[in-house]
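agent: user wants the structure for AraC family transcriptional regulator from Cryobacterium adonitolivorans. delegating to structure tool.
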Amino acid sequence: MNAPCSTKHLSSSILEPVDPLSQFLTGPRAQSAFALRVVMDPPFAIDVQDGAALTVIVAVRGQAWITAEGSAPRSLHQGQAATVRGTAPYHVADAPEREPTVVIDAEQSCRTPTGEHLELTMSQGVRTWGNSPDGATVLLIGSYQSAAAAGQLVASALPTVAIFTETEVDPVLLGLLERELTRPGLGQESALDRVLDLLLLHLLRVCVQRAEFPVPSWAAGTNDPLVARALALLHADPAAPWTVAELARRAHVSRANMAARFQTVVGQPPMTYLTNWRLALAADRLASSSATTALIAAEVGYSNAFTFSAAFTRVYGTSPTSYRRGQVSPAHRIN
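agent: tool returned. relaying tokens verbatim.
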């Protein structure tokens, strides 16, 4: 492993827990996220091709079917919520077999399948859109446009499409989202971003607690006290000169115990996990800032830009510069 450049002091014996979910909500959180109230009367079918990294859909009234590539159609009923992960197109319709009549493109432009623009035709007021001013189905939609890798790490807890029942969804958060969408006021955009973050956090917690999906490595580790402490140490100071021996010393266990427990619970050695986490943080910085590659390398614990670039290219399949330019879609996820 490349020698990290950080020389931060690691003597604190009391550590505030830090997990990737908290890192997500303080890092690549929603910023001017797309949020919309959709009001539809049957029949309807919307082909969503906006390329958003993650979308949250809430059914306020009526029902809809969500069909994503490679997944069976899933029904969404009043009071339920859904998440759709990944940039691949998906359909939202009143019936799973319905052919799309509306296409949502990048930057949320809408048109017919033949190319006729529908922005004005289907506008129903501020942040409201649909084929009827008082349709039988009302959906609240919020989309995270960024595919920054630190966010992808967290989203790895989600399947392509997840449906959350009425008992799993916090009605207070749904009420907040609907209120902010329907009552424009000072700071509405920022308020919508924060409500969307809270709703996503809530749904991610539910998904991690479910037994039906494989639990990602970072989530599995938080259930083991020893590994949870090791993860907290790594996440609190990822650029520090960590070794397995240092992790073991800080956790008051033997090096062999730390290595074995971490491997068993997380599914990979501690230093492999740290490398992937550092690169995930770096990918987010590349996507969301103008900092130089050398500065980002130093921030995540690499001694120089060359060794960082080599490690990044090996994991992400493209150089940091190409990643920043968006020449390659960031498909790598840490599981």
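agent: one observation worth passing along. The longest helix spans residues 188-209.
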